[in-house]
Amino acid sequence: MNKIKESLPAMAVIAVLLAAWWLIVVETRSVIFPTPWQVVTGTAELIRDGTLFMHIGASLMRVAVGFSLAVLVAVPLGLWLGWVKGAYSTLNPLFQILRPISPIAWIPIAILWFGVGNASPIYLIFISSVFPMIVQTTAGVHTIERRYLRAAENFGVSRYTLFRQVVIPAVLPQIIVGMRIGLGVAWLVVVAAEMIALRSGLGYLIIDSRNAGNRYDLVIAGMIIIGLIGLLLDGVMRLLEGLKSVRWRYAH
What we know:
Elements: H1 2-28, H2 36-49, H3 51-83, H4 85-98, H5 107-114, H6 119-142, H7 146-154, H8 159-197, H9 202-211, H10 216-241, H11 244-247
Helix pairs in contact: 2-10, 3-4, 3-6, 3-8, 3-9, 5-6, 6-8, 8-9, 8-10, 9-10
């Protein structure tokens, strides 16, 4: 019941925006831009012919593969950079140069190297999400409170045990934050890549609907579905932040 009450303001704002959208389209007598109901019927059309779930599945598959590869690379690399001072001073400048480059700028290179298949968007997802996770994981190691390390040293634990039982658990909150940021960027990038280089996925659905008869009802439907899936993915990452193994560092 409390959660329902908390969601009422957000639902009220959405209702007002939908009403304003409908009113503006009706008053301007637009023959191209759809009403909310036309978007609903367009979505139902995609569901009936099965293309909606095909496009959603294609986008999610690419994000899952690219993001998983980024996690497998970024987390160990970030831990290493944060733990070994020489590695940090050597490689950090390179990552700081590459990190600000827009993922969209990598699209021509991705097409040149991997063609127009699934490998291109997977590479773009990897390259866009790996750097936020590296930076966040490294920062997490650097911000560990020294009292944790001193307490472990007082018990005479080995460096390996210190790293495994103290450093990694202490860095988990920062790792989750980096994963959350990286996943959000990955979801943005796959849509952009699909608009340019592929013939499936939600990005392709949007651009194809625009080119094939100005189906702006499907364009808006695709945009809304992208937003809803992004919200769902972010919610999954927020659930990870609530795990006891992640929140122990902030316990009082």
